[in-house]
């Protein structure tokens, strides 16, 4: 029964077209897998990147932790650059479906123009992500310790656990 369904679908396209479809599908799936880590709440992603591999400082005034502007901007820029990259990849693959080199143009000239476009798009992505991150994080930011712990899924140290347990049973 499944052969009756699959066979007509396979005959819709030539083998070469199916290979092309598979190629584009794999490339888009790869782009989506890469961007999944950078989509969502930017502030939480920035905090996650900000503290990647670093020790979390103790809260200062009013249970707040100070995040430095320069590091915030750098972390946000990485997120925005990855989003820009994803958008370029998806648009590029979409446009690719409608393009073809059939006019006998020199492949060397085409390579040169592609290189120029790549440089222009890369420069644009770097500048845009830098501008957005600088606009979003103009100054140092104080964040609640609870938010940082929620984002990072912080585990208590043995000492913190003992202090918490002692506090619980002091009231009795």
Strand and helix map with partners:
Elements: H1 2-10, H2 15-36, H3 42-50, E1 64-67, H4 69-96, H5 107-136, E2 141-144, H6 145-152, H7 158-170
Antiparallel strand pairs: 1-2
Helix pairs in contact: 2-4, 3-4, 3-6, 4-5
Structural summary, described in words:
With about 170 residues, the protein is mostly helical. The chain contains 7 helices and 2 strands. The protein has helices at about 1-10, 15-35, 40-50, 70-95, 105-135, 145-150, 160-170, and strands at about 65, 140-145. About 10% of the residues are buried.
* Topology pattern, helix = H, strand = E: HHHEHHEHH
Number of strands: 2
- Mass-distribution shape: elongated
- Beta-strand proportion: under 5%
Mean pLDDT: 79
Strand order of the largest sheet: 1-2
Structural category is: mainly alpha
Radius of gyration: 25 Å
Helix content: 55-70%
**Total of DSSP H or I helical runs spanning 4+ residues:** 7
- Unreliable segments (pLDDT under 50, ≥5 consecutive)? none
Largest beta-sheet details: 2 strands, antiparallel
Ends distance: 71 Å
Brief synopsis:
The protein is mainly α and 172 residues long.
Provide keyphrases for this structure.
7 helices, two-stranded antiparallel ribbon, elongated, mainly alpha, 172 residues, single chain
């Amino acid at each position: 029964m499944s052969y009756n369904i699959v066979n007509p679908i396979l005959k819709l396209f030539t083998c070469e077209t199916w290979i092309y479809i598979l190629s584009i599908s794999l490339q888009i799936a790869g782009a989506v897998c890469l961007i999944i880590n950078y989509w969502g709440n930017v502030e939480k992603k920035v905090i996650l990147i900000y503290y990647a591999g670093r020790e979390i400082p103790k809260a200062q005034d009013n249970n707040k932790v100070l995040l430095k502007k320069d590091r915030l901007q750098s972390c946000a820029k990485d997120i925005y650059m990855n989003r820009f990259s994803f958008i370029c990849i998806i648009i590029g693959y979409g446009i690719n479906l409608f393009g073809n080199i059939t006019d006998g143009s020199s492949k060397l000239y085409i390579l040169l123009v592609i290189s120029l476009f790549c440089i222009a798009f890369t420069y644009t992505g770097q500048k845009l992500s830098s501008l957005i991150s600088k606009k979003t994080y103009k100054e140092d930011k104080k964040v609640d310790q609870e938010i940082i712990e929620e984002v990072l899924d912080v585990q208590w140290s043995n000492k913190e656990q003992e202090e918490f347990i002692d506090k619980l049973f002091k009231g009795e």
